[in-house]
Request: fold
Amino acid sequence: MNRVYKKVNQDKSPLILVSALVLTSIIISFNVKVEASMDVEVITIIGTKKDMKDLAGSGAVIDNEALEKAMDTDIAKILSAVPGMYMRTEEGYGLRPNISIRGTAIERSGKITIMEDGVLVAPSPYTSSAAYYFPSTGRIHSVEILKGPSAVSQGPQTIGGAINLISTPIPETNSGKFIQELGENGLARTHTYYGGTNGKLGALVEVHEHSSDGFDRIANIDEDTGFNKSDLMIKARYQSGNHSLTFKMLDLDETSNQSYVGLSQASFNANPRMRYGATAYDKMMNDGEQTSLTYVGDFDNFGIVFTSWSNDYHRDWFKVSNFNNDSEHGERDDVNELISDANNGSANAQAILDGELAVEIEYKHNNRYYTNEGYQFSVSADINNHSLTIGYRDMEDSESRIQAYEYSDQAADGSLSALYGYKGLGGSNNRLRESSAISYYLEDTMHFGKLDVTVGYRSEDYDQRHRRWAEGAGPNLTAVRNTIVRDTFAENDHATSSLAAKYKISNNLIIVAGFHKGMTPMFGSDPEEADNTEIGFRYSKNTSNIEVFYFASDYSNLAAECTQVNGLACDPAESAIFSGGKADVTGIEISGSWIFEGKGVSYPIALSYTSTDAVFKNSSNSDYFGLVAVGDDLPYIPDTSLSLVAGFINDSGLSGNLRLIDIGSSCSVATCGIYNKIDAHTILRCKFKKIVK
Reply:
């Protein structure tokens, strides 16, 4: 046995926001791990922390050692250690993070490239990248973040950058790990794996189970609001000499008693942890399967990586849509409009929300099926003073919507009737969107002594089709599709390029500068585009590491697709693309780490700081962005973010750290009203760990 440790005071300080509170919790964790060496056969972008010095741009590697020290399953808290990252919590557990890199639109992480082991894992990267799936962070082995010109090699979203999550590798020797966590509100997390290598064959089986009763309660019935999420991963590898073939299968399932409905200001002030009784039926249900087959070959003069993959994902978020009360109580039906009316002083609107007036409630099955499949390969070689890489990807993805309604009657005492009146819908709620994409990139790093110059080029060619049918869904959310009411086709051919330079002033100091044109595909419309610049330096000596970067993104076409997570009066059923025109995002990123040695004890310190100015450059008025004036701030991007970790490790095996996360204020819309501001907030966490040998 390698070690057993106890984890205490997890999330001890609440996160204070206008829209949500994160629960104070105490978690006890037991970790039993058999000594093993890990063979990282999965696909990486950067490699290890030591490889950062060779990166022609900015980025970060959060290795397994750092993840184990963080002892966290919320990717937002983990990424807070990396400058230039912006996160917005969704449900308080990190199940569906909203992530931005260098000021890209934050909702649903749809404007960044997300991969697992080098494979795109957004359920539908071209058709619907903001589809509410993110890998379970608790089972992830390490994380890579790419920003700047290097992101052009990953795509298709290349403005902000890319995140590559590395799954648990197959061990070189027979070994395993078992972690059991128990916490407040019925929280339980089990993470276990076992695997090994025998001759040319290797295999791994991994299980990750995560559940909680939730920290909110539902008014009038006092039911749980938690979740249950499970992952099963199987890997098998055949390796002979410098050639390997790895099969990976991931089966995932989640049921969350989560709601999309927020609270009026009066309700929030009264009890921020109480949900409206009308949301008792709200539930997120999703499941999926991911498979991949990867060949890695190391030849004398070049290397090849080839991967074929198939990802299927289904989710049905059944949630409150409307309160059908306009004829009876004179209030608007839409739940968001009803909350707005309550904020503006309507006693009837607040009474409906509180369950004090009888009304019919309409619930909607946001039921969608996603596919994402294809193949990709890269060839790399060193020729004289050139390091060349050529990459190619051929893939298809799709989103099929079969979205029906059900109803319930809310009585004046807040009680709900059983669901009734299943109604299938046609038109916008019965549709199929598909994309077929071919992309390739070329990257050449030329070495001139202390100077390295990297030139990159990426081509994206994708065709998209959008069909809708008049018929609605069958009683089991099955498709009924005979009469087409819409059939449109769009073609896009877009190229991006990059130029980066890295100059080694000394063994300790490197200067980095770069420029790249980035893009984000928008379904059925022109892509979002921005010119991106960065310049900075890396300093490393002994146990001290410092990075400072200036970055700027000049958007020529800031674009957004209407979703219920954001926007003003836009109709998400229409999937319209809205343009915010021109925008500028500039900022400074600072990160550093130091280790101070004492007698029998060491003191590690890590700092991450970002200062950002993100503004619109022109005035506009749209259903999504609302009324925008020159100089208005981009939504959800705070002006500052800070992460500071200070800890100790002594020879007896006792260690601990204090983490401070401080996020500046922001607004949910450009025209920041009284109910649109998100206050600055601070998280303070203290952890201790004891290693028993």
Observations:
- Helices lie at 64-70, 75-79, 265-270, 326-329, 335-343, 347-353.
- Residues 96 and 133 are 6 Å apart (CA to CA).
